[in-house]
Amino acid sequence: MLQEVILPSVAAFIGTAGFAVMFNTPRRELLYCGFCGMLGWFVFALFRLYWQQPVVGTVVATAAVTAAARFLSYHRQMPSTLYHISGILPLVPGVAVYNTMSALLENDLIGAFSYGMAVLKYAGAISIGSIFVLILPYSAFEIIKRRA
Questions:
Q1: Global pTM?
Q2: Domain ranges for the chain
Q3: What's the pLDDT tens digit per position in 21-40?
Q4: Cβ(83)–Cβ(67) under 8 Å?
């Protein structure tokens, strides 16, 4: 479990925080952005490891990231997109997009179609996971009262 879940989650934390630095996120929010990325990858890796369902894992991980982003947005008084975009970065299917383009350039239409469908499944999973949480009212994230 250490090599399949914990270490990649720490790497996702570092990568997500680095991504947030690149987009001029305030310094005091970098740890929270990194936490969102780590949370998303942790949930995704658990689903992939125990249930072998990466698309369902992507939906659940995106929902977890979106919920954490909305919660942090409420309590930190910052836009939720600050945490949300950084948090879903590890879940974006970059390798599948690369393989799709590579197969298209090599004129391998069957491979391009196969990889392209995987990209569409993961992109759809990310959007569905986000929508499940974004339809909740903002007051639903008042679990803990905000400090004055």
A1: 0.91
A2: 2-141
A3: 999 999 999 999 999 999 99
A4: no
